[in-house]
Specification:
alpha+beta, 2 domains, 31% helix
Length: 315
């Protein structure tokens, strides 16, 4: 299996290491010019620079996106490694100034490597970096975790995580994620990491091309990722259990005043007019075919849509 080892800001690491409750983090870069690719849910290891030159933790790669900083903050909050959005923006500006980033020719978005199920090691448990790591390397490097130094580093990380899980009083939900990382990514694939709320929101937003499935509104601040089957009722953070809707349509969907049929047509219920003696803004959309993701695997699951039709829609 192939994993990634990436140089990690020590401040980012120390901030997040104090927050073990976080189940997803954003490994961001001040520039969105470079795209990062990796196998979904493959290991992503955090490496500190000299003088530490050590692996201080790892997580699992979910996806890469170019995002406005405010959107990254809304999705991940302190999972960005900062206490506030203002602090995050100050850090971005400082790094851009240091690298002489030309904002007149570059994007104002940041690169977001989104990671799930993070584990951070205490300093005494840091793992020595690969012996073949060249000191001039600045970009993420792929390693085969089944052979050589890649295997040595990964197996030590797994062993360290088992010790941490056995010696630390952690919740069952967290321990079930980190007790055996090898089982989550390997031939057995017994328990795989999953998207969290933030990664779900980004994934759905990207799958729908940043446009409302009903109105095709593109104003990002007005759009929200919707769970078809609510997460609170065991609906998964999965793209096929999601749609991207304008905020008002989201609220109507959650309240049961509108629904989406298995063939992806919008239904506006009679109860909207009955309860509020209005709805003129929404009835013209009744029967409209929804705009669905280009990838068939990202389109709404019929089972989830039927659940909403039968259990949430007021008719």
């Amino acid at each position: 299996m192939i994993g990634t080892i990436a140089i990690t800001d020590e401040g980012w690491y120390r901030f997040l290491a104090k927050r073990p409750e976080l189940t997803e983090v954003n490994f961001w870069t001040p520039s969105a010019r470079r795209t990062f690719r990796a196998e979904p849910f493959s290991p992503f290891l955090f490496k500190l620079r000299a003088p530490h030159s050590a692996i201080c933790g790892f997580a699992y790669f979910a996806q890469f996106s170019r995002l406005p900083d405010w959107f990254a903050w809304e999705c991940f909050g302190q999972g960005n490694g900062c206490a506030t959005l203002g602090e995050m923006r100050a850090r971005i500006a400082s790094i851009r100034e240091r690298i002489r980033y030309d904002e007149t020719t570059g994007s104002d978005e940041i690169g977001c490597i989104q990671l799930v199920s993070p584990t951070f090691f205490a300093p005494e448990a840091w793992v020595p970096q690969p012996t073949d790591w060249h000191p001039r390397i600045q970009t993420p490097m792929k390693y085969d975790l089944a052979i050589g130094e890649g295997r040595r580093v990964w197996e030590t990380c797994v062993a360290t995580t088992k010790v941490v899980a056995s010696e630390t009083a952690i919740s069952s939900s967290v321990s079930s994620l980190i007790v055996d990382p090898a089982a989550r990514y390997g031939e057995a694939r017994l328990v795989l990491p999953r998207l969290g709320q933030g990664t779900f929101r980004v994934a759905v937003t990207e799958a729908y091309g940043r446009a409302c499935a009903v109105t095709e509104e593109h104003s990002l601040p007005a759009l929200e990722a919707v769970h078809i089957s609510p997460f609170a009722e065991e609906g998964p953070h999965a793209i096929r259990n999601g749609m991207l809707l304008r905020a008002d349509f989201h609220r109507l969907f959650d309240a049961g005043y509108i629904t989406v049929t298995p063939d992806l047509h919008l239904e506006v219920g009679r109860r909207l007019k009955k309860d509020y003696e209005n709805g003129r803004s929404y009835y013209p959309y009744h029967g409209r075919k929804l705009r669905s993701p280009a990838m068939p695997t990202d389109r709404p699951d019929i089972g989830f849509l039927r659940w909403h039709n039968e259990h949430r829609f007021l008719g």
